[in-house]
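@here heads up, posting the sequence + SMILES for the pyridoxal-5'-phosphate run so it's all in one place. Ping me if the SMILES looks off, I pulled it from an old spreadsheet.
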Amino acid sequence: MKDLIHQIQEFETISNQLEPLPAERNEYIEQLKQYTDQFIHTIHDRNAYQSGNPENNSLAIQGKKKTLEDILQLYAKEVEAYGIKPASGGHIGYIPGGGIFASALGDFLADITNEYSGMYYASPGAVTIENEVINWIKKVFGFPESTVGNLTSGGSIANLIALTAARDHHQIKGEKIKKSVIYLSAQVHHCIHKAIRIIGLEDILIRQLTLDTHNRIDPVKLEEQIQKDITDGLYPFCVIASAGTTDTGAVDPLKSIGEISKSHSLWYHIDAAYGGFFILTESKKHLLEGIELADSLVIDPHKGLFLPYGTGAVLVKHKEAVYHSHHYTANYMQDAIDEDMPVNPADVSPELTKHFRGLRMWLPLQLHGIEPFIACLEEKLLLTSYFRNKLVELGFKVGPEPDLSVSYFWYPSTTMDENLFNKRLMDLIHENGRVFLSSTNIEGKFVIRMAILSFRTKLKTIDKAIEMIGDAKNRLEK
Ligand SMILES: *Cc1c(COP(=O)(O)O)cnc(C)c1O
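bot reply: prediction finished. Complex structure tokens:
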């Protein structure tokens, strides 16, 4: 026995290192604070894109101790230095992410207290926060109280949960799969196609709908296609609309599509991962009319609410459909069962144990209130107009008036093949890196794409972008 105690004590002196003493903790926090200050202070002046990659093995784990100072230096040198900087306001490519400070406070608190947010029974407070965040989203989008929802790692998993519920509600299985039809736009995000395969619906019929000149689904064509499929003895089952496509930011006519879906008793899914939160703005909320008709809805707070990566959300109106695949009881969880209890996040998601994500959204909304979030969204919309006006002044052509904050442009070169010119222009912009833009292809035309959604994108960022693009254009014209 004495020997046993002695052995335990020996290990204890070593394992105690996992609980740093107050002086050490303070020092770590001080170092992290300095890093944070330096990062935020310089982010506006640094490149939004830097080519390069970490040195071989520099980030490998050797199992030996390092100081936090050395680790932070390593992080700055090998991680922070290269690639697209999502925290930079100069990130105007793809769909930019967020990273507001208040969310980091929420994450810190979630990690220190390590509340178990999968089951109400384990942490009634943490699960209430998760559910209150979902309740707030329901109100914003006009969904009924009986809706269930979940905070996910992002839009991809949120779409997966929604489409699983659609499948289970309509019992799409066995022989029925090959005769069932999903209607979607060619502009739908690729994670929808991934989800369809993951949930075993690879053999389902997918109708890519004809789009109008603004890349939106044409409801008349949708109705025609559904009628035709019914006549052909098929089983129309689900319609997927986008509220802000990733490529051009187009918002499908949500209300008309919703009415058609209802009239045929189809599952109506809306992917609003990019554009959903523009419903909070005075200037664009009319575009999102009809979003409340959806049976399931996906939004990405790590895009439109400026949170750090790792926060998506899904709402589904049919609780039983979500529970069919995700609600599970095992003997070792018998203490956790009570029908009257609030919804457990673990019953509406593939995850059991999960990061307490609610806190990184709940804390900022409590700390700032909603006003600065709305102002930030309105600001992004106006910056999009400003950017387009400035480009036109420089002789560029711009795409049609955008629905939201994604748009595109190209230079109508007379000295060089137009596509070649714009491709070279893109290369020069990437080489420069002060502001990051991406490109896309619109009906065979190579165009440069802008997506303004970072909370750090400001008037002076756009001026910087214009200067850079103008310089690049002049270089190519020489
Ligand atoms: C970003 C995006 C997704 C994917 O979401 P992740 O958070 O990257 O998983 C899905 N749909 C749309 C419209 C998006 O913009």
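MO: The chain has two domains: 107-368, 371-477.
MO: One more: Residues 95, 154-156, 189, 191, 242, 246, 271, 273-274, 300, 312 surround pyridoxal-5'-phosphate (CB under 6 Å).
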